[in-house]
Each structure stands twice: as structure tokens, then as C-alpha cells.
Amino acid sequence: MQNESLLFGFHAVIEAIKSGKPIDKIFLQKNLQGDLAKELIQLLRDHKITPNTVPAEKLNKLTRKSHQGVVAFTSPVSFQDLEELIIQTQEKGEVPFFILLDGVTDVRNFGAIIRSAECTGVHGIIVPKTGSTPISGDTVKTSVGAVFNVPICKVDHIKDALFLLHSCGIQTVAATEKTEQLIYNVDLKNPTAIVMGSEGSGVSSGVLKTVSEKAKLPMFGEISSLNVSVAAGTFMYEIVRQRID
Fold first, then answer.
1. Residue 42 and residue 54: Cα distance in Å, rounded?
2. How far apart are CA 88 and CA 226, in angstroms?
3. What are the pLDDT digits (tens) for 18-69?
4. No. of H helices and E strands in the chain?
């Protein structure tokens, strides 16, 4: 797994952080010791970057080079603060429209969702700091460059983002088959954030308990679910349809 966004080794990662490069993900080997490890960990705290602590085997899969116990992925885009983005949207007098991705890890799905989001006027995409795909050159390619036009926010936990959205008067609607309500029966003219889950397990149970609404698409074939990027695009365009009527 070698690409232009991958950094490894203490000095390379420390200098990247100090220079202001956006860090998408960072993996630290368990029980790192030494002065450089202490410096890096303090730097991560200062910049509010949450590392993933993993065994050496995980790092060895990411790169065959001498990583010294640290591997990071830089991002081609800078991340925005969610609360600030919500305020900016409201100050413009626009009806908030956000997408939350709960466990989407496939870069092609992520890129396709970003592309649809850009086309439908989404104000921002919210992803967790852990459990999501890194934003890399592949993301840029699959989104056809749309990743540069849609703000992306990283949060510690999806549920934290949900609580913030609710406090700002934004309803949250989870796409799930665990409901009888169709998306067409939800009032999406209101400020709305759509929650999409992973293709394997969908929206997590904890998130489902937290959202304002649950909704699904009607299914008539033998296959019980859509690809997550297709489902996300369909949900987004239902918001567009309701708001332009």
C-alpha cells in the first residue's frame, strides 16, 4: 500500500505536522518509547489529532519500509470544524444539508458519495476520525475532483456530531432497512443531515438510537440492498426534489 499520501518514520511525520500538512490518519505502534515518540505524541495532542494505536503487524502491512512505529496519511484537503461550518451555513440564510458517513471504508464509494454531494449542494460531509477511508489521490480521482468543492469535517465520534446537529435545529435521518418509513414521507425541507452506514452492516445500532428519523427506499427486486453510494445519491436527490417543488 504505497502512495503519495503515505508518510512513515518519526522525523517525516513530525515535520509534516509542524508544517501544517493536513493529517488524515495516523497509526502508532503500541508501547512506543523514546524522546521522538514523546515529542510526536505531544505534537498530536497540541494539534488535536487522534492516533490509532495498532500492533506492528498493521504498520508492516501499510509499508514495507522502516517505519519506526509510525505511519501517517496526509490529505489533499484541509478539514473544517463542524460547528463553524454549521454557523456559516446558517448565516448565509441557507437550509442546512449535511451527510454523515458511519463506517464507509471503500474509497470508490466515498468518492462517488462526494461527487453526488457536490452535485446536490451538500454543505458538508461528516466522517469519524477512525473507521473511515483515508482521503487520498484515489479519493480525488473517484470524486472527479469534487472533494475540493465539498467541505469535509472529521469528528471524534459520529454521535457527538449528531448531538451538535440536533442542538442547532438540524434533523438527522438514518438510511436503514430497520424501519417501515420511506424517505419520501420525511419532510426534508427542514434542515437535514442524512446518515449513511457501511455496506456490510449499515448504520450502527448506537447511531440508530440517536437519530431523529429512520427512513428507507422501496425495494422490489430480490437483492435486499443498494450500493451505499447509489443509496446516498438517491437520498440526496430526494432532498433536492422536495426543496425545489
1. 18
2. 33
3. 988 899 889 999 999 999 999 999 999 999 898 999 999 999 999 989 999 9
4. 9, 10
Is the predicted pLDDT of residue 224 greater than 80, yes or no? Answer: no
* Cell of residue 25, nine digits: 490518519
pLDDT at residue 164 in the model: 98
Instruction: State pTM to two decimals.
Output: 0.84
Q: Where are the alpha helices (DSSP H) in the chain?
A: 10-18, 35-46, 56-62, 82-91, 107-120, 137-142, 158-167, 205-208, 228-244
Letter for the amino acid at 7? L
Instruction: Name, in order, each residue with C-beta under 8 angstroms of 163's C-beta and a sequence gap of 6 or more.
Output: 210
Which DSSP letter does residue 188 get?
A: T
Residues forming beta bridges with residue 128, ordered by sequence position: 155
Q: Do 72 and 8 form a contact (C-beta atoms < 8 A)?
A: yes
